[in-house]
C-alpha cells in the first residue's frame, strides 16, 4: 500500500517547526527518522495532512554532558547509532549503552532517533523503559518558546499515549549522569536479536557496602506501557543481595503487571518470562548468575 497524500515542510528552525505544528494541530506530524512513521503512513494507520520534517534543525542535534556533569542531554535528532556509539553515553549513561545493543537493526538505527522512540512510546521499545528507570526529564516545546520538562514517569500513560500535546515537539531528553555507587542492569527476550522485545527489564540501584537502595526496576513489553515496580523498590531497600530476595522481588514485580494476550503469548507466559528475566537481571547486577532458564523455548535477545 502507499501513503495517502500529504503536504511536506522542512523548517530550519525550531520556532518555525513549532509554529507549523500549532497551526495544523492534530492534522500534522513531526517527522524525525521516519522509521516508524513511514510504516504507519504506508499501511494507512495514520493519514496526516502535513509532515513537518525536523531534520534540518541544528538545535536538535547532539549529545552533551552538562557543565556540572549532573546530566546528559540527548537532542531530538540524535540517531540510535549515535547514542549506541557515544563515549559520553557509555561513560555516563551505562544503562542506555547496555539497552542500545538491543534496539533494532543497523539500517533502522542509522536513521531512527532515540527521542523518536520516546515520542512514539511503543510498549516494547527499550528507550521508554530506560527513561523511566533513570528518571529522565523529557523536554517539550510549543509555539512562542513555551518549554516544559516532564518526568518520564509522568510522560508515558498508555498504549502509544504520552503527555505530549499535539502542538509540542519533544526537543531533548535529559538523563541524570550515573554516580559512583550506582549499578545498572538490562536484558530482554526477543524473537531475533534487534527485534522489539517480547519482555524486557531495566534496572538501576544504589549499591554500597553490599546494601541495595533506591532500586528502580522497570518491566516492558508486557503491558501497554513500561511498569516501574514500587513493590520491588520497597522489598530491596536496605537489603543485602540473596537469591531468596531476588525470588521475592520477581514475584512482587510480576504481580504488578497486567499483560495482554497478544501474538507473543498469553498473560501467563508473559508473567513467567518476566519473572525469569527479572531474576536474571537482578542476579547479574547484584550476585552470581541465577538459574533463570527462560520457559517455552524463547530465545535470549
Ligand atoms: C524493522 C524495525 C525494527 C525496529 N526495532 C526496534 C526495536 O527493537 N526497539 C525500538 O525501540 N525501536 C525499534 N524500531 C523503531 C525505531 O526505533 C524507530 O525509529 C523509533 O521508534 C522512532 O524514531 P524515528 O526517529 O524513526 O521516528 P519517526 O518514525 O520519524 O516518528 C515516529 C513517531 O514519533 C513522532 N515523533 C518523532 N520524533 C518526534 C519529536 N522529536 N517530537 C514529537 N514527535 C516526534 C512522529 O510524529 C511519529 O508519530 C524498529 C523499527 C523498524 C522499522
Automatic annotation (TrEMBL):
SUPFAM superfamilies, A to Z: CO dehydrogenase flavoprotein C-terminal domain-like, FAD-binding/transporter-associated domain-like
Source species, domain of life: Bacteria
Keyword terms: FAD, Flavoprotein, Oxidoreductase
One Pfam family in the UniProt entry: CO_deh_flav_C
Residue ranges of every copy of the FAD-binding PCMH-type domain listed in the record: 1-180
Keyword Oxidoreductase belongs to the record: yes
GO MF terms, alphabetically ordered: anaerobic carbon-monoxide dehydrogenase activity
EC id: 1.2.7.4
Name of this chain's protein: Carbon-monoxide dehydrogenase medium subunit
Organism: Herbaspirillum frisingense
Amino acid at each position: 500500500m502507499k501513503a495517502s497524500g500529504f503536504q511536506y515542510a522542512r523548517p530550519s528552525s525550531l520556532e518555525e517547526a513549532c509554529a507549523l505544528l500549532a497551526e495544523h494541530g492534530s492534522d500534522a506530524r513531526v517527522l524525525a527518522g521516519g522509521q516508524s512513521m513511514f510504516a504507519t503512513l504506508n499501511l494507512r494507520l495514520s493519514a496526516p495532512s502535513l509532515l513537518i520534517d525536523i531534520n534540518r534543525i541544528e538545535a536538535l542535534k547532539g549529545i552533551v554532558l552538562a557543565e556540572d556533569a549532573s546530566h546528559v542531554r540527548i537532542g531530538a535528532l540524535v540517531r540510535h547509532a549515535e547514542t549506541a556509539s557515544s563515549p559520553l553515553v557509555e561513560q555516563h549513561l551505562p544503562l542506555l549503552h547496555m539497552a542500545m545493543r538491543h534496539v533494532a537493526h543497523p539500517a533502522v538505527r542509522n536513521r531512527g532517533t532515540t527521542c523518536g522512540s520516546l515520542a512514539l512510546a511503543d510498549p516494547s521499545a527499550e528507550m521508554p523503559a530506560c527513561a523511566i528507570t533513570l528518571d529522565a526529564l523529557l523536554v517539550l516545546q510549543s509555539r512562542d518558546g513555551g518549554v516544559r520538562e516532564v518526568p518520564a514517569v509522568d510522560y508515558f500513560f498508555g498504549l502509544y499515549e504520552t503527555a505530549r500535546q499535539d502542538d509540542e515537539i519533544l526537543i531533548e531528553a535529559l538523563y541524570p549522569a550515573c554516580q559512583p555507587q550506582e549499578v545498572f542492569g538490562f536484558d530482554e527476550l526477543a524473537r531475533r536479536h534487534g527485534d522489539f522485545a517480547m519482555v524486557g527489564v531495566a534496572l538501576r540501584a544504589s549499591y554500597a557496602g553490599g546494601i541495595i537502595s533506591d532500586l528502580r526496576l522497570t518491566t516492558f513489553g508486557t503491558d501497554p506501557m513500561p511498569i516501574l515496580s514500587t513493590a520491588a523498590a520497597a522489598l530491596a531497600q536496605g537489603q543485602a543481595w540473596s537469591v531468596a530476595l531476588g525470588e521475592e522481588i520477581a514475584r512482587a514485580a510480576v504481580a504488578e503487571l497486567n499483560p495482554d494476550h497478544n501474538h507473543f503469548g498469553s498473560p501467563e507466559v508473559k508473567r513467567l518470562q518476566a519473572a525469569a528475566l527479572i531474576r536474571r537481571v537482578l542476579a547479574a547486577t547484584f550476585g552470581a548468575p541465577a538459574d533463570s532458564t527462560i520457559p517455552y523455548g524463547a530465545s535470549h535477545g
